User: Fold this.
Amino acid sequence: MTFQARGRAVLLSLLLCGAALPALAQTPPVPAILATPEARDIHSYAQPLVARVTHVDLDLTADFANRKMTGTAALDIAAASDAKAVVLDTKGLIIHGVTDAKGTALPYILGKADPILGAPLTITLNGAGRIVVSYDSAPDGAALQWLTPAQTAGKKSPYLFSQGEAILNRTWIPTQDSPGIRQTWTARIVAPAGLKAVMSAEMLTPDGEPVAGGGRAYRFKMDKPVASYLIAIAIGDLTFTPLGKRTGVYTEPSVMKKTANELVDVEKMVEAAEGLYGPYAWGRYDLLVLPPSFPFGGMENPRLTFATPTIIAGDRSLVSLVAHELAHSWSGNLVNNATWSDFWLNEGFTDYFENRIMERLYGKPRADMLADLGWSDLQAAIKDAGGLTGADTRLHLDLTGRDPDDGMTDIAYQKGATFLRTIEKAVGRPAWDAYLKAYFARHAFQSQTTAGFVADLRQNLIKGDTKLEAAIGIDRWVYEVGLPNNAVHIQSAAFPAVDALAAVYAKGGGAPLARWKAWSTPERTRFIASLPRALPVERLATLDKAFGLSAQGNSEIRFVWLELAVANRYAPATPSLEAFLTDQGRRKFVAPLFKDLMAQGDWGQPIAKRLYAKTRPLYHAVTRQTVDGIVK
Ligand code: BES
Ligand code: ZN
Assistant:
């Protein structure tokens, strides 16, 4: 691919220390995993074996009027003794200058920008161990979304939030934006008067400090090394409510009451997680519930999970998302994917772990329902990837020349989790749990490759047992396409009855209202999803009326209903669809619905185009980028 040729060969040979790159001694030493060939990150310009960022110190002002972050990033560099330069990742940044710690200017070159990777910033070190980059972010930088007051719950103050994963943080922080290069960090952030800044770190000044010239400065510290995609910020009219002794939630004042009420079990979740895989390593566990344009369900920013308000259903039925983001505190934040090809190490482990937390807290029947819905998601993801021979059905992804985002499908989550369940079944839960707990401890605060995990698994669990090795088929699971036939499918004991009622309804039977009322959210979701995709208008209308589907406040049920409605060109649901696509911007809901509309020819395409013209400006860049590829 062109960006690799350009980024690596040219810059390296011209500006660094030659083509062969032995890991020359650095202080602190280069983490062993980074020296393995599998850890080479094609989505970063960084050359960590030559010079590596070990600490980031941000001093930034959030300029809402001009929609930019402006200030400095001071970086500590560990460099090989003959290293001449350090290479950083940037995308759209305006660089004003680079100095050493004493303020002496350092030469730098901002290379040509690649549409996916951005531009390498190559800085001549002249022996410096600390460099200071002065810069502005661009108003359209993809990580940051600057919201108008109208896009918030309170409607009075503007709001800013960031989303770093996968390679978006380079649009507001000039550092080595590679998940294998862990960095500690600190920050001082100046926010406008009346707004509060929060970050994924220890909050040193909860109320901020006055700043000459207006606004307040907030200081933060993350003293554990983390991947750069985990640095996150939000600024807005925020308030805090404690949930337990080390847990709490930040959100806007007008939605705090219902938000805190939804999240009462968070402290218990942390305890359940610790009971499974060892002590929580990050101190506090808080959540930030964002405005509805947050593009994901949740994001596992350390110490401060970011979450969509669409999980606030009113009945605590969607809290498995919290279990998921919390689980990442082990599988993702403690031990994270070294490259984006290893994404399944984050999400497959976390999906598995999420389900174990749900089982512990709410029992096996509920956990089984969620796992069984996951199995359906896996079947859909395989279909989307082109069937069992599709290249992207592999756990270890080939992302050559692609945006990492393109490979991030439910395969990583659901095939990954299914793989771990398959190992669990082969060795038994006690042995598997003991292994996982020890695995997290062994690799704590380190990045991991697929090859590294597989080697660890062989060394510490399989231990040369050839029968066990063959029964699992590790290499086939991680490196090959499709789904091995030893895959463990967890089946909910409750679903056959739900499916049967859906079949009866499809054939003209009555809407099972009493059952519907008694059902949990997964059962309701299953009922709608298990109806045939083609239904007569009368069947849709009766269902809509009986269950109040178009007016559903539960986002998961509303979503599966709208998918069914669009598949049938059921016009009475269009106002509900329009409201849903306007009121929230979670990509998991928005992208499939636009796709469904575009698949409905001259009925759906005009609706999609009309709606997207209106909703596009409301969405975060992550959602926009995906939907831009759908609505053309
Ligand atoms: N880390 C992911 C979100 C993510 C994935 C960001 C890929 C950027 C690229 C997060 O933990 C996640 O998986 N969120 C899910 C929720 C979960 C319950 C499956 C989501 O947003 O839907
Ligand atoms: Zn996740």
